[in-house]
């Protein structure tokens, strides 16, 4: 594919290429990229021919999210990978190409995963929503969890464009605020509803020109689904909390569903769209 020829689409499907950076092997006519073809919860390295578009091959291991860098020759790559219940580790791979397939061979473990015996890992869940989509979420049990006891619950939200909260990757310090809540005896729930990213344009554009409409509907549906499947959520003591667009939804949650949310903690919320200078506001 050259600048003098017409543009050729080399991938299709309801999934996203997740990185602006790509690696091109001009000798073999291959392009490598990071994407979410197999699952919206995990980022993987893929390769496809740009000369004769065909199968897209995944080169990284499932059950982890990968952050990958290739060498200039596209013959080796380093991946730093983790899962929601596994701390980051790193490995070096060689890429082996044949006429029939593209495979990898692990050459070395650069960094092994670290075990944190006292760390409280979040647990993931999914459900089929009334809108027909599979929705993904995760939750933290309170650190003082006892079976059969129902705990005050905080729904942590973002819900806007360009952000995905629920991924199969190690959260660590990213969720220090949520760990603090769990340590103080709260259950914490996170749900990615319509409008969040990494599910394709159609899924993310559900809220185009109608911000603040379907987001709370999806959050409440997911929260109620989870409450019917676990034993620790006190539905009479639920708060909603988020920052930026999540702060906006925290206020909208209290305004739209005061029957569900008793408290709103809105961090840096959008309160006037005329004053919020971002791309999706302008559009």
TrEMBL record:
Annotated protein name in UniProt: Uncharacterized protein
One biological process term in Gene Ontology: proteolysis
Membrane-traversing stretches: none
Pfam families: DPPIV_N, Peptidase_S9
Residues of the Peptidase S9 prolyl oligopeptidase catalytic domain: 177-282
SUPFAM superfamilies hit by this protein: alpha/beta-Hydrolases, DPP6 N-terminal domain-like
Record-annotated Dipeptidylpeptidase IV N-terminal domain positions: 7-86
Gene Ontology MF term list: dipeptidyl-peptidase activity; serine-type peptidase activity
Organism of origin: Dreissena polymorpha (Zebra mussel)
